[in-house]
Design goal:
Catalytic activity: L-alanine = D-alanine
CATH superfamily of the largest domain: Alanine racemase
Largest sheet: 9 strands, mixed
CATH architecture of the largest domain: Alpha-Beta Barrel
CATH topology of the largest domain: TIM Barrel
Domain Alanine racemase C-terminal: 240-368
Number of helices: 11
Strand content: 15-25%
Oligomer: single chain
CATH class of the largest domain: Alpha Beta
Order of helices and strands: EHEHHEHEHEHEHEHEHEEEEEEEEEEHHE
Number of domains: 2
Strand order of the largest sheet: 11-14-17-16-15-18-10-1-19
InterPro entries: Ala_racemase (IPR000821), Ala_racemase/Decarboxylase_C (IPR009006), Ala_racemase_C (IPR011079), Ala_racemase_N (IPR001608), Ala_racemase_pyridoxalP-BS (IPR020622), PLP-binding_barrel (IPR029066)
Pathway: Amino-acid biosynthesis; D-alanine biosynthesis; D-alanine from L-alanine: step 1/1
Number of strands: 19
Structural class: alpha/beta
Binding site for substrate: 136, 309
Length: 372
């Protein structure tokens, strides 16, 4: 009897995630490790991922928004937690009450955090962010002395750290990495001169793997934790997410007949088509039409014709897969199955975008190696 598989699911291997966290912690033995779980843990599920990362040795968690951080607190997570980017109307008081560390990139933002701390009668833990060259969030170097002086004089905040983010750490040897490191060192000296004694963190996943001189007190592991390698050299990382569906129907198609919208694909021979009930409504990019394979029946098979909103067709040749048979759209790549990196390369994007976009209403999420 053929096993039954759902219409669409992402399978999250928490044991693979634990392996990756352990590997990354071993690469930065003198630093604490922050597991970055923003954007619902890059589409993997923030709460299960956070728990598994902590089990594997993560001592900090990182989110983008305060609401993400508070969701973790409401889920029972008590580990140190940094939230670093929000709108001006964010309820910093709720974050301070929940023991969430907050980031400040300007004197105005620092004052709003301090005012919130005053409202709740509790000192806010703050990480001051210096823009060292990414030119996104972060305090411009010209304004940095004013920020650290204001922070040093503000009794309602405890300056835990200064931090920054690297632009090109995934390109080892890129001159910007050393340039940013130099600016970060200068910013640290200014903070110390103002009377602060902060910890430092600047290393992302790529820098964890390639720049031990930038590990400092804390490293922030994002994409590598999910088993997707951000650097050119081979690393023993295990992809955590796979995307699967099932065969809903098969049919024989005579030579000369065409498939799907626009009739962009025509059978050159009699063949068997397998209908898979996932499409761009479930995270399969329409732009992969005509250039993607799936793993079905122990081998790669091409998708025939355009990807539709709810379905796609697979050319199976002389084979006749069973209705209900599993289809892997991307996974860890064992035995040659497609991967998220393969999708990204074909689309001219990065694998971060592929996995993060898999959080969709019709796609079920299933966990291995931990609680569902």
């Amino acid at each position: 009897m053929t096993a039954s598989f759902p219409r669409a699911e992402v399978v999250i291997d928490l044991e693979a995630l634990r392996h990756n966290v352990t590997l990354l912690a071993e690469r930065a033995p003198g630093a604490d490790l922050m597991a970055v779980v923003k954007a619902d843990a890059y589409g993997h599920g923030a709460l299960p991922v956070a728990r598994a990362a902590i089990e594997a040795g993560a001592t900090w968690l990182g989110t983008c928004s305060l609401s993400e951080a508070l969701d973790l607190r409401h889920g029972g997570v008590t580990t140190r937690l940094l939230s670093w980017l929000d709108v001006p109307t964010a309820d910093f008081a709720a974050g301070i009450e929940a023991d969430v560390d907050l980031a400040a990139s300007s004197v105005d933002e620092l004052r709003r955090i301090a005012d919130a701390a005053g409202q709740v009668g509790k000192q806010a833990r703050v990480h001051l962010k210096i823009d060292t060259g990414l030119s996104r969030n972060g305090c411009p170097p010209a304004e940095w002395p004013a920020l650290v002086e204001a922070a040093a004089a503000e009794p309602r905040v405890d300056v835990v750290a200064i931090w920054s983010h690297l632009a090109c750490a995934d390109e080892p040897g890129h001159p910007s990495v050393d340039a940013q490191a130099k600016r970060f060192s200068e910013a640290y000296d200014i903070a110390r001169a103002a009377g602060l004694e902060p910890m430092r963190h600047i290393a992302n996943s790529a820098a964890v793997l390639t720049r031990p001189d930038l590990h400092f007190d804390l490293v922030r592991t994002g994409i590598a934790m999910y088993g997707l390698n951000p650097v050119p050299q081979q690393e023993n990382l295990r992809p955590v997410m796979s995307f699967r569906s099932t065969v809903a129907l098969t049919k024989r198609l005579p030579a000369g007949e065409s498939v799907s919208y626009g009739h962009t694909w025509t059978a050159e021979r009699d063949t068997t088509l397998a209908l898979v009930p996932v499409g761009y409504g479930d995270g399969v990019p329409r732009s992969l039409s005509g250039r993607m394979d799936v793993w079905l029946g122990g081998r790669r098979r091409p998708v025939a014709g355009r990807v539709c909103m709810d379905q796609l067709m697979v050319d199976c040749g002389a084979d006749a897969p069973a209705v209900g048979e599993e289809v892997v759209l991307f996974g860890a790549g064992e035995a040659g199955a497609p991967t998220a990196r393969e999708w990204a390369d074909k689309l001219g994007t990065i694998d971060y975008e592929i996995v993060t976009s898999m959080y969709r209403p019709r796609v079920r999420r299933r966990y291995l190696g931990g609680p569902a």
